[in-house]
Design a protein that fits this description.
Layout (H helix, E strand, L loop, with lengths): L2 H32 L8 E7 L6 H21 L6 E7 L4 H13 L5 E4 L3 H14 L3 E3 L14 E3 L4 H15 L4 E4 L1 E2 L3 H16 L3 E2 L7 E2 L7 H10 L3 E3 L4 H13 L6 E3 L7 H6 L6 E5 L8 H14 L5 H19 L5 H9 L4 E3 L2 E5 L5 E2 L2 E7 L2 E8 L2
Helix pairs in contact: 2-11, 3-4, 5-6, 11-12
């Protein structure tokens, strides 16, 4: 054999050995990835919420509810492990939400993520969780498209398709209103989605929407709504549907009342914050929202939660506190039922949740990973939210 042939044979042999070793490493890595995760010192769950920024009370209440639930959860543990929550502040911004989800996955190595509130924020983080194969469950984002991101994304709250119908029927059937204007936060997926559902149901029942969605819009952080409200006033509606967040809603209603606009405003769960009354003052009286929870619910479990929350935080819980409380309990229940601590097994357990009895209602995750559960209609008053009715799905 010539020196060239000997060299070529040696090179081919070495190449074969290298590829054989690489394939073996790949097989071992695949086996390790597929192996169930059974041994953990603790269960680490990420939490993405707006702890600062314009909708900070949502995040603060949500985390309060989560921490209250953790007190009882960690007394006994979940599969003998304590749960540790790693909270990331998304400041109520989509970009910050995406960054927070990425950090929780890549740096904190979480088993699952709970969050966020505000659908635009959750929609920004969900694709990262889906691509990474880490379960993310939102306790409060209601826009329909959130869970369409993929099978690792779920929610423990109802959707806009439900609460939009609830409020359209309340306006038309309970209040007897027939002529509506819809005011939309154009920077919010939540607001646009809820407006679309309300419009469709209200007109289906025989009501008339006398506004064009492009003419009656605003964006988050706006503070002067008088020009917009003049357009609404000229349309002469007998009801106004305003699916926004409390920060703008409170100011807008106060300005509307000062302009002699005394028709009721209706909204969704985005109104449900103690700050609403502070911003609107007495102008908040006589309006209505759909939400997830009422502290006036006579259910003994709800009243025990209200009592414990007041003792811990010095105020009554709002909807976000209740949703955070239920959300972490649903996740813990899923982890308890999961075959292992692996992301895929936790995902499967979350998605198979049936008839979990929470303080915001009985929670069943359907085939689209959305929760089927009841809603409540609340009247807004200067002294707080007053229970009007419960609506089952």
């Amino acid at each position: 054999m010539t020196n060239f042939k000997r060299g070529l044979a040696l090179a081919l042999t070495l190449t074969a050995l290298i590829f054989s070793g690489c394939n073996k490493q790949k097989e071992e890595s695949a086996t390790a990835a597929a192996a169930p995760v059974t041994n953990l010192d603790e269960i680490v769950i990420g939490a993405v919420f707006p702890m600062t920024g314009p909708i900070a009370t949502y995040g603060q209440e949500s985390v309060n509810g989560i921490n209250l639930a953790l007190k009882s959860l960690n007394e006994t543990g979940v599969k003998g492990k304590k749960i540790r929550i790693v909270v990331q502040d998304n400041k109520g911004e989509p970009v910050e939400s995406a960054n927070a989800v990425r950090k929780l996955i890549e740096v904190d190595k979480v088993q699952a993520i709970i969050g966020s509130v505000a659908s635009s924020n959750t929609l920004a983080g969900a694709p990262i969780a889906q691509q990474s194969g880490v379960p993310l469950m939102t306790p409060a984002s209601t826009n329909e498209t959130v869970t369409q991101t993929g099978d690792y994304i779920s929610r423990s709250c109802f959707t806009d398709a439900f609460q939009g119908v609830v409020m359209a029927k309340f306006a038309y059937e309970t209040l007897g209103k027939k002529k509506a204007v819809i005011i939309i936060d154009n920077s919010s997926d939540y607001s646009r989605g809820l407006a679309s559902v309300f419009r469709a149901k209200f007109t289906e029942m025989g009501g008339q929407v006398v506004s064009n969605d492009n003419d009656t819009t605003y964006t988050q952080k706006d503070t002067d709504f008088r020009s917009l409200l003049q357009k609404v006033k000229r349309a002469d509606p007998d009801v106004i549907f305003l699916p926004g967040y409390y920060t703008e809603v409170g100011l807008m209603i106060k300005q509307a009342r000062s302009m002699g606009m005394n028709m009721p405003f209706l909204g969704g769960d985005g109104w449900d914050s103690p700050k609403l009354q502070e911003l609107a003052g007495e102008a908040i009286n006589g309006n209505y929202i759909s939400s997830h929870f009422s502290s006036e619910d006579s259910d003994p479990r709800v009243q025990q939660f209200v009592s414990e929350y007041e003792k811990a935080y010095g105020q009554k819980p709002g909807a976000m506190a209740a949703l955070g409380y239920d959300g972490i309990l649903v996740m813990a229940d899923a982890i308890m039922r999961a075959n292992s601590f692996s992301h895929a097994d936790i995902r499967d357990a979350i998605n198979s949740t049936k008839n979990y009895i929470g303080i915001t209602g009985n929670i069943t995750i359907d085939e689209n990973r959305n929760a089927k559960k009841s809603a409540v209609v609340l009247e807004t008053t200067v002294s707080g939210m007053k229970f009007k009715q419960k609506v089952n799905p």
